[in-house]
Amino acid sequence: MKLFVDNLTNVDFSYLHPQRGLLGESWLVQLVLDGRLNDQGMICDFGIVKKAVKAWMDKHIDHALLVATGLPRLQHARQDGETRIDWLYPDGQHFYCRSPEQAITLVGEPDINPHTLAAWCKEQLLALFPDEVQGLELAFVPERIDGAFYHYSHGLHQHDGNCQRIAHGHRSKIEIHLNDQREEALEAVWGERLRDIYIGTRSHLISEADGMHHYRYDAPQGEFELKLPAQYCYDIETETTVEQIAQHLAVAIKQEHPDSDVQVRAFEGVGKGAIAVA
Fold first, then answer.
1. 71 touches 16 (CB < 8 A)
2. What distance in Å separates the CA atoms of residue 262 and residue 278, rounded to the nearest whole number?
3. Does any domain span residue 140?
4. Cα separation of 198 and 233, whole Å?
C-alpha cells in the first residue's frame, strides 16, 4: 500500500552549480510513502506527513545555500558556529560565502540536482515516520513555466526569518505589459539579463575591487558575507524584496519605453510575487 502527497510544499533555495555558479531555485516537493496499514487503517496520518516533511525541509533546504561536498575546486569548513565556502568557477574566478551554519547545508553528493538531492534527503526523512512506513519516494519537481524566467539569489538583512540569509534564491517567471499588452519578447530580454544573477543591495556592498563584489551585513542569525564576480551581480538601491524588485524593474523598463504605461508582475518562486506599475 502506498500513500502519496502531491505538491506537499515548495522549497526556495540557492546552490552552487559546477559551471554556472550561484543559482537560485524553486522546486515543488512530491512524496510517496510505502508501508502497511496501522490499527486505524492508515499508513500514516496526512497531517503528520505534511507537518514532519515541511518542518524538515524548512530546517535543511528552504532558504538555505546548498553546497555539494563533491563539487570540484571546493573547500569548506565549519567552525565556531559558522560555515565557510571557498569555490572556484571553471574559469578560475572566486566565490566565497561565510554564514551562520544553519544558513548553509552541506550535501554529501557530487552535485545538486533534483535526483541527487532527493536521494540525500530520503534516508533522513524516513527516520521521521512510524514503523508502518517501510519505504519512501521523494521527488523535487521544477515548476513548469511557459515563457521567460530567471534564477536569482539574494538576502534580506532586515528580515526576522530565514530570508535574512545572504545567499538563498528562487526560480521566477516575469510578466511585462506595455499599455496593457503582454510583451513576451521584452520578458525574454529581462529574463536573460537576470539569468543566474545575484541581486544585491548597494548598502551591503563593501568593495568592488578586482572585478569582485563583496557584500556583508549583520542580521539576527549572525554575520553574513559573500564575494563573487561582478558579472554575476545586479545591484539595486533598496532591499531586494520582491516588491522592491518589481518596482525597480518597472522603473527601468519605463526609462526604456517612456511613452508606454508599464506593468511588471515579478514572481518570487512558485505562485507568489508582486505587481508594480510605472
1. yes
2. 5
3. yes
4. 5
Name the DSSP class of 144: P
Q: How far apart are CA 86 and CA 156, in angstroms?
A: 22
Provide the CB-side half-sphere exposure for 108 (13 A, CA). Answer: 6
Question: CB of 154 within 8 A of CB of 168?
Answer: yes
Write phi, then psi, for 255 (nearest 5 degrees): -65, -35
Parallel/antiparallel/unpaired status of strands 82-88 and 94-100? antiparallel
Overall residue count recorded for the chain in this entry? 278
What's the rounded Cα separation, in Å, for the pair 116 and 198?
24
Say what the pTM is: 0.93
Burial 141-161 (b: 16+ CB within 10 A, else e): eebeeeebbbbbbbbbbebee
Place of cell 502497511: 36
Look at residue 46 and give its three-state secondary structure.
helix
What CATH number is associated with residue 87?
A: 3.30.479.10
Q: For the segment 150-166, what is each residue's pLDDT rounded down to a tens digit?
A: 999 999 998 999 999 99
Q: Number of folded domains in the chain?
A: 1
Cell triple for residue 243? 516588491
